[in-house]
Amino acid sequence: MRPEWAKARRIVVKIGSALLVDNEAGVLRAAWLDALCDDIAELRKRGKEVILVSSGAIALGRNLLGVPKGPLKLEDSQASAAVGQIHLAHAYESAFRARGLVAAQVLVTLGDTEERRRYLNARSTISTLLKRGAVPVVNENDTVATNEIRYGDNDRLAARVASMVSADCLVLLSDVDGLYTAPPGSGADAKRLDVVPEITAEIEAMAGDVGSELSR
Question: Do residue 124 and residue 206 come from a single domain?
Fold first, then answer.
């Protein structure tokens, strides 16, 4: 176990759509979800508090609605989220129940972490869930959030949640194993950076286009 995990008591884990949903079939990767929940159950036995920030609702919902692949209009994105969110919540509830844990769904918008009263209310709710032994599963409320009032991606949401609940560690689970100087497999001389002590203009310039239609 990494030292950050070993010392941390409260951990926020962000899960990317590419890990949770099979992009071609548009269905949940059940075996991957089971393995994740096994890990979380083990962390809970060690006295850790775990909060999940989970993508996947739109990717699941668009398949169930038959929305064609490609960029989504806002209304299609919101409709897909409405359908996918209920399936995603059911999957988490079933997986955690099988391991003796209770899952809780927490849907937030950007305003919930920017307006003081709503921020305190969201923090209080998550703190109470943790005290009661539940595993909060957080996602952006995509069914009501417009482009102007969105986080934009769950990495940003996860960072806000980690700050809000005073987490000791934030882990971003992705199908890429770290930060690279260039997209892996792009033909460029991509090197992985194990530690980034400071965000500089050079670091920001490494950002490129999205890797798939599930990404932002």
Answer: no
Considering the domain architecture, whether residues 30 and 55 belong to the same structural domain is answered as: yes
Domain count, the chain: 2
Report the b/e string of 125-149 with b at 16+ CB within 10 A.
ebbebbeeebbbbbbbbbbebeeee
pLDDT digits (tens, 9 = 90+) for 6-32: 899 999 999 988 899 998 888 999 999
Task: Quote the CA–CA distance of 85 and 142 in Å, as a whole number.
Answer: 9
Q: What pLDDT, in 10s, does the model give residues 28-70?
A: 999 999 999 999 999 999 999 999 999 888 889 998 998 888 8
Instruction: Tokens 């399936």: give the residue.
Output: 87
